[in-house]
Amino acid sequence: xxxxxxxxxGAGRIGxxxxxxxxxxxGTTLQWVCxxxxxxxxxxxxxxxxxxTANPRDVFEAPDVDxxxxxSSTPTHVDLLQLAVEAGVPALCEKPVDLDIARVDEFRQQxxxxxxxxxxxxxxxxxxxxxxxRERIASGDIGSLEQLSITSRDLKPxxxxxxxxxxxxxxxxxxxxxxxxxxxxPSIVEVFARGATLFSRSIANLDDYDTASVLxxxxxxxxxxxxxxxxxxxxxxxxxxxFGSEGLLTVGNVSDTSVRHxxxxxxxALQPYQNFFLERYSQSYLLQLSEFAKAVRGEPNxxxxxxxxxxxxxxxxxxxxxxxxxxxxxxxxxxxx
Length: 337
Ligand SMILES: NC(=O)c1ccc[n+]([C@@H]2O[C@H](COP(=O)([O-])OP(=O)(O)OC[C@H]3O[C@@H](n4cnc5c(N)ncnc54)[C@H](O)[C@@H]3O)[C@@H](O)[C@H]2O)c1
Prior knowledge:
By secondary structure, this protein is an alpha/beta fold.
């Protein structure tokens, strides 16, 4: 089959990752690179191919585009998804869909009844370690899943300008963990969260938290605990533990090598963990694109859909409300926000 011709909108930090994936995957080719900053678009195009434009409409109106990837800043996502649906072009859109649930709901009917696939970029679903964990649970290795623990600590906080527009820790950082939780236990009915500012004055000045703990309750009473921090002295900390009626499965942190070193000052010393999300989750972006290509070709796939993006945002809103009020918050992920 011919290669899928991809138009990329947004050539920033994550746009560069998507461009590299499109150039790497045998079944896809980068046809257009669009960024309002044409220097960024040109840099990506020189490295991975594609024609350059500053205007997204050029990409939607081009006759040689089979699908688009939306990797521009969050406030642009819903408008660009709307253009994609109107133009009949399949879209993979970065998370979050938007920071405002009302805006997500306004577009919900159009998005979920669109004739073309819309996928949301929850790449961690495709991480091979987490995917294998799901397989082992599904094959009955630990009986029925009762408790899930997700530890997700960033290496260090982003720039203050980034954090100021990120929507806060729950919509920016925990949102990935909400989706990871739902990839194991889709139906969540209650959220209890606490936030604290333990180390960053600039995050405190933004009325945001640098540290958070969340407890999610599943429809069958299952418990998911999420532990977040905006920093970790020992590196990017990404672990999941699944406890069931017949046993336990864990996913630990990942180093580039499993060679260990014993010496007078340390034992069992490993290389540092993979640096940050671009390294730790690099395979997941490629596997996500491969699943999106299946969606575009009308084949069965595991992509996260629009309502998965909506559910993660609803959980983030509930966590924020719970942290601010000290109360547990009930959620109905299928109902109105
Ligand atoms: N899935 C992940 O792991 C992951 C990681 C990082 C960021 N993200 C998400 O990806 C999105 C982009 O984040 P980033 O860190 O790459 O930001 P960034 O600021 O590095 O890049 C965004 C780019 O979009 C461009 N842009 C903005 N509006 C545009 C428009 N109307 N038309 C064309 N280009 C436009 C900007 O010029 C910029 O180059 C955000 O929604 C973010 O939440 C996801």
